[in-house]
Amino acid sequence: MGVNRIRIAKDQADLVKALTASADTTGPFQTYADVIAFAAALGVKRRKRSSLGTIAKKEPAPIGLEIFVSRGYDALIKLLALVETKDAKILSTFDAKAEEERIHIFEEYANGGLQILRDELRGAVDYSERLLLVLNAQRFKQVVPEDDFDLSRFL
């Protein structure tokens, strides 16, 4: 059994690099794995799952699964797979096919989340500030009763 890696779509590679803190950028995330895990959670929250298409071969290269495990994201990967398939067999640590399927589901949700982030962060100078606005908008989202007529959709 080979080492499994989390792949990133080539068209999302620049965004992932920009969101990661380095000497050249002031991104809000420490590692590529942090960006991918956040994007996957956002993809699930907004119900956006998208196939990868062309895979980035260079920076950022596919990330080893052990990086996600060391940062505690293995629970997120397993939970997403369990919710998506509704089959407990997907959690098997002895089944290589189950692990491949878990990774595939995680990659697609992460890609969907990166597409959402790309749209939300378009034109932003400071990604940290814009991400904070996105998170606050979600946190303080107002629930409008269905029987009331909502004029805010026309704004």
From TrEMBL:
> Taxonomically, which superkingdom?
Bacteria
Q: What is the designated name of this protein?
A: Dnd system-associated protein 4
